[in-house]
């Protein structure tokens, strides 16, 4: 494949990655809106609610600490595809978690996927086109910012239309399959 064609495909991939950043930012910020409903469904107290966020952050920390090892051995774009597929599946599974312990395990996995995606996407876009790496990196974070704004709006709108918190997660997972 010639260099121009390779650069064209890399740019197309980068635009998909912007979409991934947007979607995973939505899931990162919509949870706060959905917590009261989740707490009611599982009968959670404030400590148990706090554990959900802590577990998610522990997963994210582990991803950041160990993720580079895989990224040095496997092409980043393959890892992004695998991690985003796992992320999409986890979103759907959060929506059907039968008990609190399963919910915690899924939020741990969500933390891993979220932070690993962020790390991999940042690394990938900064390597593709050295002349525009700052632009692509800034754009990926701008799409994360847009998704962060969209998360609470999406969750609130869905609840106002009568969707349960479970359905909000499942629907986001289904929407993410559009990128896969």
Q: What pattern of helices and strands is seen along the backbone?
A: HHHHHH
- What profile does the largest beta sheet have? none
Q: Overall pLDDT, averaged?
A: 92
| Low confidence ranges | none
Classify the beta-strand content into a percent band: under 5%
Structural class: mainly alpha
Description:
- The chain is mainly α.
- It is built from 6 helices and no strands.
- Helix 3 (76-94) packs antiparallel against helix 4 and helix 4 (100-128) runs antiparallel to helix 5 (133-160).
- 36% of the residues are buried.
Brief synopsis:
The protein has 180 residues and is mainly α.
List the helices and strands and how they pair.
Elements: H1 3-42, H2 46-73, H3 76-94, H4 100-128, H5 133-160, H6 165-176
Helix pairs in contact: 1-4, 1-5, 1-6, 2-4, 3-4, 3-6, 4-5
């Amino acid at each position: 494949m010639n260099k121009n064609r390779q650069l064209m495909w890399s740019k197309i991939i980068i635009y998909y990655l912007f979409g991934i950043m947007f979607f995973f930012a939505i899931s990162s910020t919509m949870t706060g809106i959905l917590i009261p409903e989740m707490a009611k469904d599982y009968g959670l107290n404030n400590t148990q609610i706090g554990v959900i966020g802590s577990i998610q952050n522990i997963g994210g920390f582990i991803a950041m600490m160990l993720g580079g090892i895989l990224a040095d051995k496997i092409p980043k774009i393959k890892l992004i595809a695998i991690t985003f597929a796992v992320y999409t599946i986890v979103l759907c599974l959060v929506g059907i978690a039968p008990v609190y312990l399963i919910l915690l395990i899924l939020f741990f996995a969500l933390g891993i996927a979220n932070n690993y995606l962020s790390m991999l996407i940042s690394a990938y876009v900064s390597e593709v086109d050295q002349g525009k790496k700052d632009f692509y990196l800034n754009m990926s974070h701008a799409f994360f910012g847009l998704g962060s704004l969209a998360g609470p709006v999406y969750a609130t709108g869905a609840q106002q239309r009568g969707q349960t918190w479970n359905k909000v997660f499942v629907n986001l997972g289904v929407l993410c399959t559009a990128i896969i």
